Amino acid sequence: MESVNLFRGYGKVSPHLEDQNPHQQKSASKRRILILSILSILLLTLIVGLALAALIHESNTEPDESPYLSSANSAESIKTVCDMTLYPSSCFTSISSLNISTKPDPEAIFKLSLQVSIRELKNLSSLLTSLNYVDSQAAMKDCMSQFDDSLSKLNDSLLAMEVGPGEKMLTLEKVNEIQTWISAAMTDQDTCIDGLEEMGSKFLDDIKAKMERSEHFLSISLAIIAKMQALLEKFDLKMH
Fold first, then answer.
1. Which residues contact 50 (CB under 8 A, 6 or more apart)?
2. Half-sphere exposure (CA, 13 Å, Cβ side) for 54?
3. Record keywords: Electron transport included (predicted)?
């Protein structure tokens, strides 16, 4: 009898399922699909959000690859270069006063030092031209000629560093040439003084004092270019 009852009960559904008509079963299936769809969308949104957050964090924490330094780091770079000269304070103040964003390397800083040297030599030439050194007219005329020659050499040095995209501002050959040109510019100023001494000018000391500033900046540029190899090593760079 038990086997007959078991056979008779086979294939029957539960009373709960029997209570649901096909329409209700279809609605329940749709709700399950809707819930799963919503959960899938929420999960996808969460994954995308986490990915974006990771990218933003990575972008904010990566070091700045810009070729230009922040003002603080730029000042530190200029100080490092200027400390190699005889007049570090004058060097730092003059180059910083240009207020020009510069690359973090000695080459760019040297280029700025050349601009300062040219500016100071022009100022000196204008000043001495405006003053009336009565007893030294012939010698002063020679001095103006020497100053013009000095400016020409400094401008040649600056021009040598004007290069096209992808080219290097300084090579060993250029360094040697520029060093020679700046040395010659300093010799021009010495020649001016020698001429004034030969003339026995009573304004000699006054003129020497006015030339001192220009001489200091020429010395700064010369020191930087002469020690370019050592400076590049300080910045983990190499001569091209």
1. none
2. 6
3. no
Chain position carrying tokens 């609605």: 27
Residues 92 and 123: beta-carbon distance below 8 Å: no
Task: Fill in the amino acid letter for 46.
Answer: L
Structure tokens at 111: 């280029």
Backbone angles phi, psi at 169, to 5 degrees: -65, -40
pTM of the model: 0.69
Phi and psi at 179, nearest 5°, equal: -60, -40
What are the residue boundaries of the structural domains of the chain, listed by start? Answer: 15-61, 71-234
Return the higher-pLDDT residue of 167 and 231.
231
**pLDDT above 90 as % of the chain:** 48
12: left (phi over 0), alpha (psi -120 to 50) or beta: beta
CATH no., domain 71-234: 1.20.140.40
Angle at 62 between CA 56 and CA 68, to 5 degrees: 120
State how far the Cα of 231 lies from the Cα of 18, in Å rounded to an integer.
91
Alpha-carbon distance of 112 to 158, in angstroms, equals: 9
What Cα–Cα distance (Å) separates residue 78 from each residue in 73, 92, 132?
A: 9, 6, 39
Locate 203 and state its tokens: 């304004």
Going by the DSSP 8-state scheme, the letter that residue 12 receives in this structure is P
Answer yes or no: are the C-beta atoms of 91 and 85 closer than 8 Å: yes
Examine the pLDDT at 135 and tell me if it is beyond 80.
no
Coil/strand/helix, residue 64: coil
What distances in angstroms separate CA 7 from CA 1, 4, 12, 59, 149, one per listed residue? 10, 5, 10, 71, 121
Residue pair 105/237 in contact (Cβ under 8 Å)? The answer is: yes
